Amino acid sequence: MAAITEDSKVKYSFLGKTGIQVSNICLGALTFGEMNGWPGQCDESLAHTILDRYMEWGGNFIDTSNTYGRGGSELMVGSWLERQHRHDVVLATKCGINMGRTINSRGLSRRHITESLEGSLERLRTHYVDIYQTHIFDNATLVEETYRTLDDLVRCGKVRYVGVSNVTGWQLQKIVETQKHLGLNPIVSVQQQYNLACRTSELEAFQVCKNEGISVLPWSPLKGGLLAGRVRRGQKPTEGRLGWVAHSQTRKGEAHPHWEDTSDQIFDLIELAIEIGKKHGRTIAQVAIRWLLQKDVTSSVIIGARTLQQLDQNMAVNDWALSADEMKQLDDASATAGTYPYVFIDSLNAGRTNANTGDYYVKSVAA
């Protein structure tokens, strides 16, 4: 393996309004352990090798979930973690998605949250997690119950901070206002799918984050491999994870967040990113990750890796930068089509952006 130079190692940023700093690249552990038949998953030995190499890059932020491999990912991270200095690692995990044991093994009730955390702590071989995140919003449980429970877990020391993921703008604002009203410890981070091919969270959720000082942790920065340049215009993928997903969708008739009928706009964007990457001697994947790092809402980008080569390539994004013109080109090429009421609001509030309160929405959407 090539030596890692000091200037290419990760940078650090504060997580929301907390005093802790996390590396701007977070290692996601979705690839560790058996995952519903997905190809290329890492066994324990490879997972530990990837984790060791990530630490060599200066990384200190690891994200997993109880649902990844039905606990298998947490087990692998835990067996690695017990060989480390626990305080060197900022560890995040999640709860809320159906674990399939009983009818109550899902959601964000007090019962399921506390049960889930106990299981995660046991698998992770630690007595606390730094960030405990709701994996989804639960329409069946009162928001007050969910966040009182999480606040109790912070107060008793099993959780340091609370985060959320996969939320709409109104859900996020409701969570924030409920916590304020009840005097609870506030959420510090939001995990959303965010990449050059998926920018809808900019419309509302990220505006809440800007106004409330909440960190954004983008997941799927490469859109499941689509932004790694593995798919050609007019063709469905046939190899690797994207090929498996596309085949599964066709076979089962199911939608999947990483594969849908891609538009000409996506392939125009991919070609632009390839062209920009060549100017810097970088891959399209590195361009896609670098674009996220230069967004002001981003604290840390969550990457996954199935090989050491993938890890090293995706980590090599800190010793260079995209120019302002290149960022604008990528913004324009990836802009979401303008919709009501955002375009309408923009037309009536032209020139009234206030840096102290944040935009109402992303300007490129209305462009």
Q: How would you explain this protein's 3D organization?
A:
The longest helix is centred in the C-terminal third of the chain and has 17 residues, at 264-280. Strands 9-8-7-6-5-4-3-10 form an eight-stranded parallel β-sheet. A two-stranded antiparallel ribbon has the order 1-2. The protein is built from 13 helices and ten strands. Helices cover 39% and strands 13% of the residues. With 367 residues, the protein is of the alpha/beta class. Helix 2 packs across helix 3, helix 4 crosses helix 5 (169-182) and helix 8 (264-280) runs antiparallel to helix 11. It has two domains: 6-334, TIM Barrel (Alpha-Beta Barrel); 336-367, no CATH class. The N and C termini lie far apart (45 Å). One of its GO terms (molecular function) is oxidoreductase activity. Residues 25-333 form the NADP-dependent oxidoreductase domain.
Looking at this protein, list some descriptive labels.
alpha/beta; 13 helices; disordered C terminus; 2 domains; TIM Barrel; 367 residues; single chain
Name the poorly predicted regions: 246-259, 359-367
CATH 4th-level superfamily of the largest domain: NADP-dependent oxidoreductase domain
Mean of pLDDT: 89
Largest sheet: 8 strands, parallel
**Which CATH architecture of the largest domain would you pick?**
Alpha-Beta Barrel
| Rg from alpha-carbon coordinates | 20 Å
* SS-derived structural category: alpha/beta
Numbering strands along the chain, what is their spatial order in the largest sheet?
9-8-7-6-5-4-3-10
Instruction: Characterize the overall form.
Output: globular
SS summary, helix count: 13
The CATH class of the largest domain is identified as Alpha Beta
How many domain regions? 2
CATH topology (fold) name of the largest domain: TIM Barrel
**Spatial gap, N to C terminus:** 45 Å
Order of helices and strands: EEEHEHEHEHEHEHEHHHEHHHH
Q: Strand portion, in percent?
A: 5-15%
Share in helix: 25-40%
Instruction: Count all strands and give the number.
Output: 10
Keywords: Oxidoreductase
Domain NADP-dependent oxidoreductase: 25-333
Protein name: NADP-dependent oxidoreductase domain-containing protein
GO cellular component, one term: cytosol
